[in-house]
Write a structure and sequence with these properties.
Blueprint (H helix, E strand, L loop, with lengths): L1 H22 L4 H9 L5 H17 L3 H14 L4 H15 L6 H22 L4 H15 L7 H15 L10 H11 L7 H13 L5 H21 L4 H14 L3 H14 L2
Helix pairs in contact: 1-2, 1-3, 1-4, 3-4, 4-5, 5-6, 5-7, 6-7, 7-10, 7-11, 10-11, 11-12, 12-13
Length: about 270
């Protein structure tokens, strides 16, 4: 019986994949109907798709994983881990396979939009997705882990310019933008690191608890620390953010980081 269910799940999985291959978003409504008709088989199919995704990842077949990611987000739209997995594949795995540095931006941007425009729309109170968006801005778009990061930063600057001060176009709340400027020091919003700070703080405003809260606090002080390297005016804010995090969750590692940061900036 179990073998029969798996075979049936694979057949239904193939049907969903066919809808995506036919026309992408134009056939999303049809794909939704297929998913709605899965009933009790939905859990089985999800397991099959995850298994397939793991196999493709082990084999380095990231382009094929993009289609799998579409299916997973359709099957489990309210599971933040699915959106994080899908966006990471686009922005970190597939992007580096592109032949030119310019081509990489399309995939990084696709990962960003998947998280921000789709994932958060369906999971607006997810601290995990806020963390993923913030980390994408800090490490990938505004960081140094990718040789194409200067291009990503330039393209993001163009996005901000096109928005023309209309924060809604960037899916950002103008009141929170103003708060960030007051709380952490005037930001250069052309710089992706300012967006990293925004999304980290937006996640904290949801009042998460446990590890999710501490990860967002860490993202705040890490962003401020990086900003301090270029502009020392951010250093006192970074130190305070570290102290706040330490007060909530003391650790020898964070205590040592605070001491070394104080020494470096003579605070």
């Amino acid at each position: 019986m179990k073998k029969l269910l798996v075979i049936l799940a694979m057949m239904l999985f193939g049907g969903i994949a066919w809808f995506f291959q036919r026309g992408g978003e134009s056939n999303s409504a049809e794909a939704d109907l297929v998913v709605a008709g899965l009933g009790g088989f939905r859990g089985i199919i999800t397991e099959v798709v995850w298994f397939r995704a793991d196999r493709l990842q082990d084999e380095g077949r990231y382009a094929e994983m993009a289609q799998i990611a579409n299916i997973l987000t359709t099957l489990e739209p309210h599971t933040p881990e699915v959106w994080a997995y899908a966006a990471w594949n686009l922005a970190y795995n597939i992007s580096v396979m592109m032949p030119t540095l310019e081509d990489r931006w399309r995939w990084v941007e696709a990962g960003l939009k998947l998280l921000r425009d789709d994932g958060l729309r369906l999971n607006p109170k997810s601290p995990e997705l806020h963390r993923e968006i913030g980390w994408l801005f800090l490490s990938k778009i505004g960081g140094t882990i990718d040789e194409a990061s200067p291009i990503y930063t330039a393209r993001w600057k163009e996005e901000v310019a096109r928005a023309g001060g209309d924060w809604a176009k960037l899916k950002m709340d103008p009141s929170l933008v103003a708060f960030i400027d007051r709380e952490y020091g005037r930001q250069d919003w052309n710089d992706p690191k300012a967006s990293a700070l925004y999304w980290a703080h937006h996640g904290l405003s949801l009042k998460p608890t446990g590890a999710a809260r501490m990860e967002l606090r860490q993202l705040v002080y890490q962003t401020l620390m990086v900003q301090s390297v270029k502009e020392s005016r951010f250093a006192p804010r970074a130190l305070q953010a570290m102290r706040d995090a330490y007060t909530e969750a003391p650790s020898p590692a964070l205590k040592d980081l605070i001491l070394r940061f104080r020494a470096k900036f003579s605070l």
